[in-house]
Amino acid sequence: MNNIYIVGFMGTGKTTAGKEIAGRKAWNFIDLDELIELRERRRIADIFARSGEPYFRKAEQAALKEVAREKNFVVACGGGIVIDKENIKIMRESGYIVCLRASPDEILKRTGSSKDRPLLNVPDPKKQITHLLKLRAPFYARADSSIDTTGLSAAEVASKVMKLISQKKKRLRRQLKKLARRREPVNFFKDT
Predict the structure, then answer these.
(1) Is the dihedral of CA 33, 84, 148, 68 positive or negative?
(2) 154 Cβ neighbours under 8 A, 6+ residues apart
(3) How far apart are CA 36 and CA 44, in angstroms?
């Protein structure tokens, strides 16, 4: 496992939990949206407003491809990254995908009146959250695992992620041992 990708809807704790996980593992942390803002030299809200969501999604995938070539990164991804199957493929080939979830009320509480959330700058943000969560649910289900962060601290979420990763590694080791037992040794010196 090269990297850990944290996906999920905005306000589920991807950045705060991601930083906590990176600290515990002594890995690098990167927020993909922040990388995009650095590359574009403008805020995500400005990218959406001036260039549109399709442009943003292309920039997002380019940033993801760049990070996927690295090792030992915890990556907080944008909420919509999972919509593109290619992004899932990139993440799966280079790491472990954890989806963070939260209730619409919790998300609304966490995102508050932030103007940096272009998809929530609507008259009824809770209705928009509920709608987008339903639309994205099948895409978030593609993650390797999922954690409900409602009412949890970043430290608690990080502990749950670390436990999931540990369990995944144990399962992989068991599978490798089974495969090793099934294989017959090759004798290169045997006459045919």
Answers:
(1) negative
(2) 13, 16, 17, 19, 20
(3) 8
Neighbours of 158 (CB within 10 A): 24
| CATH number 3.40.50.300 given to 3-182 | yes
Dihedral sign from CA coordinates of 35, 57, 147, 172: negative
Non-local CB neighbours of 14 within 8 Å, separated by 6+ positions: 6, 7, 8, 31, 76, 77, 100
pLDDT, tens digit, for every residue of 20-79?
Answer: 999 999 999 999 999 999 999 999 989 999 999 999 999 999 999 999 999 999 999 998
Which range is least confidently modeled, 53-57, 89-93, 187-191? 187-191
Q: Is 80:136 a contact under the CB 8 Å cutoff?
A: yes
**Residue 123 DSSP code:** S
Residue pair 57/84 in contact (Cβ under 8 Å)? The answer is yes
- Taking only the tens place, the pLDDT of each residue in 143-157 is 999 999 999 999 999
The one-character DSSP state at 90 is H
